[in-house]
Amino acid sequence: MESKVYNKRERAQPADKPSEDVVNNTETVKRRRTSAATSLKDAWYSWYAQESRMWRSTDVEMKHTRFNFKMIVASMKLLIPEGFTLNEKSPTYRDEVLATGTQAEVKLLVFLQGYQITARGAQNVLKSKRKLHKGGF
Asked: Positions of the region Disordered (predicted)?
C-alpha cells in the first residue's frame, strides 16, 4: 500500500491486456503529414514558369503558399544586382527561368551564410529572413 501511495509512476499495462484507448474505441491523434522541402529555385520556377492549380485556387492553404512564394521570389530578386529579363515567347523560356532561379538561389544562400544561417528549404529561408528583418538587418 505504501509503495503505491509514494510511487508516482504508473505501471505499464501488461502486453496481454488491451489499453484503455482500445477498450474505449477512441481514436489516437494522427501525426500531421509533412511534405518535402521546396528548394528556392523550385519556388522561383513555379512562380514564373508553371501554370498550376495553385494560382487559380482560392483555398486558404494555397493562398498561404502563394504568399510565401511571392515573398521568397521577391527576396531573391533583390540579390540579382544586374537584374534579369525573361522573354516569354522564347523557345528556351523555361530554361532561362531555371538558370536565373539557380543564380538567385546561390546568391541568397551566400547572403544567409554570412549570418551563419544554413537553411536551404523555401519555408526555412523565409523564416530565417523574417528573423533577420525583425533583428534590424
From this structure: 1-35
- Write out pLDDT tens, residues 79-90: 888 888 888 888
Angle at 40 between CA 64 and CA 56, to 5 degrees: 40
> What distance in Å separates the CA atoms of residue 58 and residue 66, rounded to the nearest whole number?
10
7: in domain: no
Q: Write out the residue range of the structural domain in which residue 110 sits.
A: 40-135
Count structural domains, the chain: 1
pTM above 0.90, yes or no: no
For residue 8, tell me if it sits in a domain: no
Cell of 47: 512562380
32 domain-assigned: no
H helices within 15-114, ranges in order?
Answer: 20-24, 40-48, 53-56, 60-78, 93-113
Q: What is the pLDDT of residues 3-33, one digit of tens each?
A: 555 555 555 556 665 555 555 566 677 776 6
Give me the numbers of helices (H) and strands (E) for the chain, helices first please.
7, 0
